[in-house]
Amino acid sequence: MADDTKPTSAAAGAAATSAVARYQVADVDRAVLFYTERLGFALDLQAGAEFAAVSRGDLHLLLSGPGSSGARPMPDGRAQVAGGWNRVVLYVDDFDALVDRLQAAGTIFRNDIERGTGGAQIQIEDPDGNPVELHEASEGSTSAATGPDATSAVVRYQVTDVDRAVLFYTERLGFALDLQAGAEFAVVSRGDLYLLLSGPGSSGARPMPDGRAQAAGGWNRVVLYVEDFAAILDRLRAAGTPFRNDIERGTGGAQVQIEDPDGNPVELHEASEG
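Structure (tokenized):
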């Protein structure tokens, strides 16, 4: 979080093994209310209208408002916008009851409930259109086998080649492979973060009821805190990894965005001292 406030990484509890995701929001106050009142997050830090950090179990969610360094345009002028398909996944025990409460509150739902051998899932949107997946695991499902539970930090990415994605995350970014189900799905982890890699044919990649495909890319992203920031950037450049932008620096530290083989963004962050 090189956001121009104070070093939120220390204040919000994030560290090199923490699970962190960043969302773009137009109104930080509105976003904080949504995540705390409707989805049970705690407010860890807020810096006026620019930035807030909320958490739920092991997941730290950064809400970047206009003016924050985490929302600055790319060198080619592209704006970082809300929405997309990359999303946090919340495991809940009261799945049906929560869906009912959210529907009663007027929350936007992207799709109907999807069911499979892994359980039930459905996507909602926050006030800015960022997706949140609610998931109820079935007994003996892959989610139970790989460790995530109601307090785990989980993010889902869309990929076209699961094997290729697994190699990228394990070899270049230090993730561990927890589970792979052929060409359809894999789970990799890094510290507290579980990353679900959904390939073609997986239930997490099914089209929406209106036909929209869930595509890779977008701006919602996981944030990896690294201590060897300069060294890892050199290694990634040498391996031909695409970089979206130049290093952004602020009072919170330094950050830069790279892309995985499918265009999903990953933010690398070096926190400032203090």
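Confidence is low (pLDDT under 50) at residues 4-12. The helical segments are 8-11, 28-38, 95-104, 142-146, 162-172, 229-238.
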